[in-house]
Amino acid sequence: MDGFSVKRACELQPLPENQTWLIQELWSHQAVGIIGGEPKSCKSFLALGMAVAVASGSACLGRFPVPAAGRVLLFAAEDALHIVRARLEGICAYHGVELHALDLWVITAPVIRLDHDTDSARLERTVQQYAPSLLVLDPLVRLHRVDENQSAAIAPLLASLRELQRKHRCAVALVHHARKGAASVRAGQALRGSSELHAWGDSNLYVRRHKERLSLCVEHRAHRSPGAFGLQLKTDDNAIALIASGDETSEASQAQTASATRSQSGRERVIQVLGRFHEPVRMRLLRDACQMRAESLSRLLHDLVQAGEVIRTDNGWTLARRSLDGDLDLPTATKYQLHAPV
């Protein structure tokens, strides 16, 4: 019997720089991981927001760019299909994208049991057929009947999802519950069940509720975490979305952030926010990220366009320069059809 294939370390194929992230700073390229949180903490909204962001190429949570749009496959085990559609339509409306234009697919089977060989094989065939960049499974508790507290029981199920990811080169986001009343422990340790769940993820997101406030903690196996930040569930008529709202590690840090934001000039604030994105930003997202009134933001954008620092495109506003050191970003400046000033 032949041994396993091996290569010298220097011969291993590096990952291209443009394939480091599925969602910049939030989810690694082809990563498996957990979206965790206590019940009613908006973790399913976060998963749906990720799905819309990847399928549309728009920024996730209004802050984290998607380097390349890709197909998304989603299974929502706890919600009726009409509810899933309504939530997706609300998220799309908020971000200014059309649901019918997205490469976003929903598995409509009433039940999937990953601990059954038949269902596991059917899921793999579906992934093989649709070749998604991201597979979202929500939630784990509805996908099996094994004891989550037993490592020997849950590890094979997680291993099958890891094998699915490696074989078909797709990211896998698994929504999972955290224990109630576990706010005082490390986010990953608050997950319900075996520690295998925490250890399994390449990228893990943990939604935590502090009274009426939500915050998100991010963990990566191979990258630095962006740190904890606040979340807000924004609504506007039929539009609804979960949006990043700044650092939220403590009341003191919130006050410091608010003070720094107030002291920063509006012009600097707009340029700084636009600098986070590698794609044009629509007015609503820019307004939320800058925490400015629409009228004030429109005046600033007009001035910045006139000064040649910002460009208006079909998809929103973007910097005319890649960085603030004066180096022109010609691909960005010429990629889009330019419009008259705001």
Commentary on this structure:
- It is built from 10 helices and 13 strands.
- A hairpin with an 8-residue loop joins strand 9 (213-220) and strand 10.
- A 9-stranded mixed sheet has the order 5-4-6-7-3-8-9-10-11. The protein has a two-stranded antiparallel ribbon with strand order 1-2.
- It has helices spanning 43-56, 81-95, 117-130, 151-168, 196-200, 251-263, 266-275, 283-290, 294-306, 330-335, and strands spanning 21-23, 27-28, 32-37, 72-76, 104-106, 134-138, 171-177, 203-210, 213-220, 229-236, 239-246, 310-313, 316-319.
- The model is unreliable at 247-264 and 322-342 (pLDDT under 50).
- The chain folds into 2 domains: 14-253, 3-Layer(aba) Sandwich (Rossmann fold); 264-335, Orthogonal Bundle (Arc Repressor Mutant, subunit A), CATH 1.10.10.
- The relative contact order is 0.13.
- It has 342 residues and is an alpha/beta fold.
